[in-house]
Specification:
Number of helices: 13
GO biological process, one term: DNA repair
InterPro entries: DBINO (IPR020838), Helicase_ATP-bd (IPR014001), INO80/SWR1_helicase (IPR050520), P-loop_NTPase (IPR027417), SNF2-like_sf (IPR038718), SNF2_N (IPR000330)
Keywords: ATP-binding, DNA damage, DNA repair, DNA-binding, Helicase, Hydrolase, Nucleotide-binding, Nucleus
Radius of gyration: 64 Å
Number of strands: 4
Main location: nucleus
Protein name: Chromatin-remodeling ATPase INO80
Helix content: 55-70%
Strand order of the largest sheet: 1-2
Order of helices and strands: EEHHHHHHHEEHHHHHH
């Protein structure tokens, strides 16, 4: 146990406290002796002896030797590797190993290291032999007889405090007169050398900064020119790109428009063909029912007749991919062959049943028989033109149709659906022009047919047609073309004035 600062501590506790104070993480074999010294107990409780002239001389000699060693250490570049040798133990990060490696470089292993190891082993073996031989010689040597006379004890003469003070003053005076001027001269020379080196370094720094500034100015000038050139090239590129893109878009739109015209024409042709097939099938079914009543038959003939209404084209929706990435999807019609077959069979059956009822009532009298025959002939010559449901007034038609005008528009629409031509033979002033315009608005709204429509009228009523269109159907574009009898004839129009129609688009 030992009392430190009034606290009793054991040796392991003191050792643990010292390990916390110092950084021993990177201490290797070369600095192990320093670690042992720092961890050992110091004899601090011993009383200091009085200052003697001999101790003073010894201290001055050690101080002088220390100065010489310091100068030698700082002047010798080989000893720079031992920087941070002991100071690194007092810091959190020990810089000794990094500094040592930086100066000496990486250690290279080679055949010389192995040779040195062998030499060390041989030296150790030789030392062991010598120690054994010396030990044996000491044992064999005769005992030494102590002499009877005693050595003279030399007494050191102690100086008085006044004499020691005078001697100390002389020594300090000699140091001040000899050592201080030398140190001052050395310090002034080193200071001058430091200032000269600083001036040289400042000049080099100024040259380097000027060189970097000139280089930066050149780079900025080049960057401005490069940026202008890049912007010019970019503008030229985007102008060319927009032009090419515009041309490709126009080309794609033109192709899509042409394809739409072709699809509309094809759809119109199919619709007319289906209407004709429906009328023919309805008539043949009626004839088949009549022949089956007279001669008898089976349903195979009825199936063959109904096959005329089958649509072999499949799906009528077409997808066209054109150049430029545009895809045109033409809206198909909602034709259903099965429903049309059912309607045709129903109409033929109804007509046949009506015929049977009329034939039964024919027995009541000749007059009734003739009337039944006339009604049958009229039903065969003119197909059923009644609409399943009355069509409302089109929303794009700006105006209010009267009841008889709405019936006239429905009659015209039924004629159009059946593919039959008709004539409005109303009296003058009942609105035949308005009914025709209402039919065109119905076709545009429900069937998507926006023209072109050709209206041929006398020159006296042409202005009236144009006014009616602008009043009731302003969404239509109306173009009036007048032709006088004196100037040209009807057979000259396709040859002489055909170019006048080229400037108008057909699908508008």
């Amino acid at each position: 146990m030992k009392i430190v600062n009034g606290v009793a501590t054991t040796k392991p506790e003191r050792r643990a406290d010292k390990t916390r104070l110092y950084n021993f993480t990177k201490v290797k074999k070369s600095r192990k002796w320093l670690k042992n010294i720092l961890l050992s107990d110091s004899s601090s409780d011993e009383d200091d002896d009085e200052m003697t002239p001999e101790k003073m001389q010894e201290m001055l000699r050690i101080h002088k030797l220390q100065r010489q060693c310091q100068i030698q250490f700082y002047n010798d570049p080989q000893l720079h590797q031992y920087q941070y040798y002991s100071v690194g133990l007092l810091s959190n990060y020990d810089k000794y190993h990094d500094h040592h490696k930086q100066i000496l470089g990486p250690k290279k292993k080679g055949p010389k290291d192995e040779q040195k190891k062998l030499e060390k082993k041989l030296m150790k073996a030789k030392l062991k032999k010598l120690k054994k031989e010396r030990g044996s010689d000491e044992l064999k040597s005769p005992p030494i007889h102590h002499s009877t006379h005693t050595l003279k004890v030399v007494k050191v003469k102690r100086l008085t405090p006044e004499q020691a003070l005078v001697k100390r003053k002389r020594m300090w005076m000699s140091i001040v007169k000899k050592e201080v001027p030398k140190a001052q001269k050395q310090r002034t020379s080193t200071r001058k050398e430091m200032f000269s080196n600083a001036r040289k370094l400042a000049k080099e720094c100024m040259k380097e900064s000027r060189r970097k500034a000139l280089q930066f100015q050149r780079s900025t000038k080049d960057s401005l020119q490069r940026a202008r050139r890049l912007t010019r090239e970019m503008l030229v590129y985007w102008k060319r790109f927009e032009k090419v893109e515009k041309e490709s878009r126009k080309k794609a739109e033109k192709e899509a428009q042409e394809q739409r015209k072709m699809d509309l024409e094809l759809m119109e042709a199919k619709r007319q063909q289906r209407k004709l097939n429906f009328l023919i099938t309805q008539t043949e079914l009626y004839a088949h029912f009549m022949s089956r009543k007279v001669a008898g038959g089976n349903d195979t003939m009825q199936k063959e007749i109904l096959q005329r209404l089958d649509d072999d084209d499949g799906d009528s929706k077409r997808h066209l991919e054109v150049s430029g990435g545009l895809v045109t999807d033409m809206k198909g019609d909602n034709y259903n062959s099965e429903s049309m077959k059912n309607i045709a069979v129903k109409n033929a059956t109804d007509a046949f049943q009506a015929h049977q009822a009329k034939t039964k009532s024919f027995d009541s009298g000749v007059v009734m028989r003739q009337k039944a025959k006339k009604s049958l002939d009229s039903s065969l010559s003119t197909p059923d033109l009644t609409m399943e449901e009355e069509l409302p007034q089109p929303s794009i038609f700006e105006g209010k149709l009267k009841a008889y005008q709405l019936k006239g528009m429905n009659w015209l629409a039924s004629l159009y659906n059946k593919g039959i031509n008709g004539i409005l033979a109303d009296e003058m002033g009942l609105g035949k022009t308005v009914q025709s315009i209402a039919l065109l608005s119905h076709l545009a709204e429900h069937h998507g047919i926006w023209g072109p429509f050709l209206v041929i009228a006398p020159a006296s009523t042409l202005h009236n047609w144009q006014q009616e269109f602008s009043k009731f159907l302003p969404r239509f574009k109306v173009i009036s073309l007048k032709c006088y009898k004196k100037v040209s004839h009807s057979y000259d129009l396709p040859t002489q004035q055909g170019s006048a129609f080229d400037k108008f688009e057909r699908g508008a």
